[in-house]
């Protein structure tokens, strides 16, 4: 079921928001420890995905050229600026609007949402979205405890956004030959895994990696799989 991971993710946001309503502000040390634990798990998942490939040259080329394209397009900068503009628009407004907008941006604007949804659609693998659900559920607890119930409604755009990607990915599988599809899954999984490694490093605050700049590597992975199939 292509939407299972997305359903779990949206449900985790709702559950986290409801829990947050009954909690006082969580101690910073506890929240940091939980975030570090999640970061380690995200890093391990990303590495396991990246190492599935047997063609590291194609992986390297996809990531390098994808990063060049993303840097040229300034994807990370544009994404951050968009988030700031939206938050400024709602600054000083009701806490409901603030928590809803902040939650939506946080949950949707990331490589994990895209890679996880693609994996769900292409091969029914929801592992990435399950991990994202834990991360989103925890942040929903914090948002809800500090900003109120508005974050619970962020589950709706998350479901629509990730669900659309997952269904589109599943739809593609109906029209592609099985051997080519296997190559596409392998390449997209390995490239997506590297992006998730970057997210894990960011969560651990070990370095600052502009993960969004590498998003063009995903379509390049599809192109490389097609070229390898044809040549």
From TrEMBL:
Keywords assigned by UniProt, alphabetized: Membrane, Transmembrane, Transmembrane helix
Record carries keyword Transmembrane helix: yes
Transmembrane regions listed in the UniProt entry: 6-23, 30-50, 56-75, 96-118, 138-160, 180-201, 207-228
Tagged with keyword Membrane: yes
Coiled-coil segments on the chain, per record: none
InterPro entries: DUF554
Record-given protein name: DUF554 domain-containing protein
């Amino acid at each position: 079921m292509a939407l299972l991971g997305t359903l779990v993710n949206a449900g985790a946001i709702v559950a986290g928001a409801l829990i947050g309503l009954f909690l006082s502000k969580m101690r910073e040390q506890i929240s940091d420890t939980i975030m570090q634990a999640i970061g380690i798990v995200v890093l391990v998942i990303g590495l396991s995905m990246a190492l599935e490939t047997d063609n590291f040259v194609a992986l390297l080329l996809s990531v390098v050229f994808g990063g060049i394209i993303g840097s040229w397009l300034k994807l990370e900068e544009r994404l951050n600026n968009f988030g700031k503009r939206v938050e400024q628009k709602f600054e000083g407004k009701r806490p409901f609007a603030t928590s809803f907008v902040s939650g939506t941006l946080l949950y949707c604007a990331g490589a994990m949402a895209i890679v996880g949804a693609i994996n769900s659609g292409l091969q029914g693998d929801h592992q990435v979205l399950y991990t994202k659900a834990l991360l989103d559920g925890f942040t929903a607890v914090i948002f809800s405890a500090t900003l109120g119930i508005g974050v619970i409604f962020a589950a709706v755009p998350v479901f629509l956004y990730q669900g659309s990607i997952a269904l589109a990915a599943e739809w593609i599988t109906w029209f592609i030959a099985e051997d080519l599809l296997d190559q596409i899954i392998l390449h997209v999984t390995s490239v997506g895994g590297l992006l998730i490694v970057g997210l894990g490093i960011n969560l651990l605050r070990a370095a600052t990696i502009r993960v969004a700049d590498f998003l063009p590597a995903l379509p390049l992975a599809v192109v490389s799989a097609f070229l390898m199939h044809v040549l």
